[in-house]
Recover the amino acids of this structure.
C-alpha cells in the first residue's frame, strides 16, 4: 500500500523547439515542487512532428540530459514521450526518468497511421509496467488507448499513464476511452494531453485529467489552459474497493502475443 503525489502538466508545446519546451518544463517543475512524479504530454519537446531525422535523440541527447538533471535537482521522477533513435530505427518512446538518472523506456505499440506516424516510426513490441515508490504503472502513449487488450490489467498494475497529442476533433472519444479503461481495469488512469495548434494546423484542447478505479473524475486541468494539477493517490483504496466489488476475479484468461 503506497501513497504517491503526482503533478500533470498540460502545455502548449512549441513546434519543433526543444530548447523552449524544456525551459518551460523546468520552470513548471520548479514552481510545482514537492511531487513524486511529474507527467508531460506526448512528444513534449517537439510536438507531433515526423521530422525524425532531425529531432530523434538517444539517452545522450540534449533532451534526456536536461530531463535527468531536472529530475535529480527536484528529486522528482519525470515522464512523457519523445522521438528516440536506437540501432538506426526511430521510435515514439515513453521515457520515465528517475531522480537517480535511471531511464525506463516504452516504445509506442500502436502507431497512428492516419497521422503518417507509421511511415517513419517503428512500433514497439513490449508492454511495460514499472514499479515506482510502490505504485505499479502501465506506460501508454496516445493511440494505445483505443486498444483494450494492450491495456488489459492482469493484476500487474495499479495505474495507467497515457501521454497524448489527441486532437480536439476527437476529444469526446479520448474522454470516453480514458474512463472506460479505468472502469474495466479497476485502476487509476492519468492522462496528459497538450493544447494549442501545431504546424500541421491540428488543434488540441487538452484533456489532462485523472480517473479513479471506479471511473470517477478526481482531477482535471481546464480546457485550453496551460496549467499543472496536483493529485495524491493511495493504492490501498483500490484494494478496499476490490473487496466489495471483485470484478477482477471474473475476468477471462488469455495470453497476449505482440508480433
Amino acid at each position: 500500500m503506497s501513497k504517491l503525489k503526482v503533478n500533470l502538466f498540460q502545455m502548449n508545446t512549441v513546434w519543433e523547439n526543444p530548447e523552449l519546451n524544456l525551459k518551460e518544463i523546468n520552470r513548471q517543475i520548479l514552481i510545482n515542487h514537492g511531487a513524486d512524479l511529474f507527467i508531460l504530454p506526448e512528444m513534449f519537446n517537439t510536438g507531433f512532428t515526423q521530422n525524425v531525422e532531425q529531432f530523434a535523440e538517444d539517452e545522450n541527447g540534449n533532451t534526456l540530459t536536461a530531463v535527468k538533471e531536472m529530475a535529480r535537482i527536484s528529486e522528482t521522477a519525470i515522464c512523457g514521450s519523445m522521438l528516440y533513435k536506437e540501432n538506426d530505427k526511430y521510435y515514439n518512446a515513453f521515457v520515465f526518468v528517475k531522480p537517480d538518472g535511471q531511464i525506463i523506456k516504452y516504445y509506442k505499440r500502436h502507431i497512428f497511421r492516419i497521422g503518417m506516424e507509421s511511415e517513419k516510426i517503428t512500433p514497439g513490441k513490449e508492454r511495460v509496467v514499472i514499479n515506482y515508490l510502490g505504485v505499479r504503472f502501465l506506460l501508454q502513449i496516445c493511440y494505445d488507448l483505443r486498444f483494450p487488450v494492450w491495456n488489459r490489467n492482469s493484476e500487474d498494475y495499479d495505474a495507467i499513464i497515457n501521454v497524448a497529442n489527441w486532437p480536439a476533433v476527437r476529444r469526446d472519444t479520448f474522454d470516453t476511452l480514458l474512463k472506460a479503461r479505468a472502469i474495466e481495469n479497476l485502476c487509476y488512469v492519468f492522462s496528459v494531453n497538450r493544447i494549442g495548434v501545431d504546424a500541421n494546423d491540428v488543434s488540441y484542447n487538452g484533456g489532462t485529467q485523472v480517473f479513479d478505479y471506479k471511473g470517477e473524475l478526481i482531477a482535471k486541468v481546464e480546457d485550453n489552459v496551460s496549467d499543472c494539477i496536483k493529485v495524491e493517490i493511495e493504492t490501498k483504496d483500490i484494494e478496499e474497493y476490490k473487496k466489495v466489488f471483485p470484478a477482477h476475479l471474473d475476468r477471462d484468461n488469455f495470453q497476449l502475443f505482440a508480433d
